[in-house]
């Protein structure tokens, strides 16, 4: 995938990782599902953000988070992903952890006709995200090939 503003430059896997981490951070901050953030920003917005990822990751993540919320008019919700049964889940993965999970899932399921933005939209809109994001179970903790196989088979 080529950078929107510098067509000679390729978008790197680390740029995808940054975007996945920020989607998680923003979704947690406004208490919405990742899917809401992805769909509200939209394809053009995601293409812009992933093209600027190399510069954005040098900024304060709180500022980037705030800019995304303001620029894309993201609204607060009441979905708290960190609300878990403490008996079942003693560890809540960080946005960096979940960014890595989603980045690997996108890479592992990317078709030859898709770019990273298509992969982001496809994966975050799949029902398997409800399982992966349920920290009362260990789906997020599975090896990436298990998660990719579950995605392709329609569930765990």
In short, what is this structure?
This protein is mostly helical and 156 residues long.
Describe it for me?
The chain has 156 residues and is mainly alpha-helical. The protein contains eight helices and no strands. Helix 5 (95-109) crosses helix 6. The longest helix is centred in the N-terminal third of the chain and has 18 residues, at 13-30. The two termini are 30 Å apart. The model has no long low-confidence stretch (mean pLDDT 95).
**β-sheet strand percentage:** under 5%
Structure class? mainly alpha
In round numbers, the mean pLDDT is 95
Residue runs with pLDDT of under 50 for 5 or more positions = none
The profile of the biggest β sheet is: none
Envelope shape: globular
β-strand number: 0
H-E string: HHHHHHHH
Tell me the number of helical segments per DSSP (H or I, 4 or more residues long). 8
Residues in helices, as a percent range: 55-70%
Q: How far is the N terminus from the C terminus? A: 30 Å
Radius of gyration: 15 Å
List the helices and strands and how they pair.
Blueprint: H1 13-30, H2 34-51, H3 53-56, H4 61-71, H5 95-109, H6 116-124, H7 128-132, H8 144-153
Helix pairs in contact: 1-2, 1-4, 1-5, 2-6, 5-6, 5-8
Please describe the structure with a list of short key phrases separated by commas or semicolons.
single chain, 156 residues, mainly alpha, 8 helices, 0% strand
């Amino acid at each position: 995938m080529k950078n929107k503003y510098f067509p000679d430059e390729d978008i790197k896997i680390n740029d995808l990782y940054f975007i996945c981490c920020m989607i998680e951070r923003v979704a947690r901050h406004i208490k919405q599902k990742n899917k809401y953030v992805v769909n509200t920003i939209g394809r053009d917005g995601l293409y812009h953000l992933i093209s600027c990822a190399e510069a954005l990751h040098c900024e304060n993540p709180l500022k980037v988070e705030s800019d995304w919320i303001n620029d894309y008019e993201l609204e607060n919700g009441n979905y708290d992903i960190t609300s878990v049964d403490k008996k079942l889940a003693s560890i809540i993965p960080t946005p960096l952890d979940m960014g890595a999970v989603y980045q690997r899932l996108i890479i592992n399921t990317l078709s030859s006709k898709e770019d990273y933005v298509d992969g982001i939209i496809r994966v975050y809109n799949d029902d398997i995200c409800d399982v992966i994001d349920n920290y009362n179970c260990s789906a997020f903790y599975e090896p990436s090939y298990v998660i990719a196989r579950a995605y392709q088979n329609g569930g765990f």
